[in-house]
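Quarterly update from the structural biology core.
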Amino acid sequence: MKIGVLFSTTGPYGAMGRDARDGTHFAFEELAHTSDLSIEPVFFDPHADLAAYLEGARQLLRAGCRHIIGTITSAARKEVIPLVEKHDALLWYMCPYEGFEANENVIYVGGCPNQHLIPLFEHLIPKYGKRPYLVGANYVWGWEMNRLARELVTNAGGDVLGERYLPLEETAVERIIADIEQRRPTFILNNLIGPSSYAFLEGIKALADRDPGFRAQNCPVVSCDLMECELDDIAPGAAIGQLCAASYFDSIATPDNTAFKARVAAHYGSSRRVSGVFASAYTAARLCADTIVAAGSDDPVATKAELHSKSWPTLFGSLVVDRETNHAALPFHLGRINADNAFDIVASRPPLAADPYLTRRNAPASPKLRVVS
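Predicted structure, tokenized:
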């Protein structure tokens, strides 16, 4: 059974792509020892070239792959969806994204805004105030996340003090840092990607060194897309104390996660930290393979029917995928970066049903946020 794997391992988000590739392959290697299903992963690396994603998807589909696990950015996902639709295949997408999408040919294992950004702001605004500064990558992720952030702040009676964008891989952050220093927000939403994000965090650390008002405990930088696999690429100490929202952190203290990390350590070495993107790619690969086994076929219609028919044990807990939107219900965790380049979980919520179009605003209140520290 051929399953396509489509991740870029180089470029501005290469660290996430490498971890996603490894998470997928680790799932397939485990299945080779525990399942009768023989999987041949077919890997294509587009090297962060948007046009190459389309060619990669085309090659994978022509090779007989009816399922593709992959893409990191929303731009890449949107690039390949029309081709996946044309071939009646399934794309298993496993990164947090900006929402406002639900496609019959995509299974969304990554979170949408009501699973990351909204509970994040429900925590931040009462604690730090409602005068944020917004920064983002100059493409759909940055635009849409900041648009939603503006709406959340406005609805709370607050003011967005500034909003700036950088091209992918741009690291000249000095003007943005100077603007932040002048406007003095209560917190900063960081929707930058890769090297831009790392340079920005380093710039904020330099600002905080000369002005204590910008230390993490006073004016935190918060993200929804910063992963454990990226922390070593940031200057030592530059990100300590900053916050990130995610559905998974390596530090989650559950028996299932402890056992999983032990298996990862046995395979990759004891120093390997499990990132959210590794865990999500692993989960997407396992769900893909397990539903193929349950269906007795890799027919996408049959595998989707199996996927929607029950809950599945995963690293995220018992996982349910909504049959109307193809989105997974996911937990919310808020992590604070520590001196060991890992996340300490400071608040959590149990799995939240996905609401990609934010149409359920009059629904019952979401589960209460459990604050750890």
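The domain at 114-251+332-371 is CATH 3.40.50.2300 (Rossmann fold).
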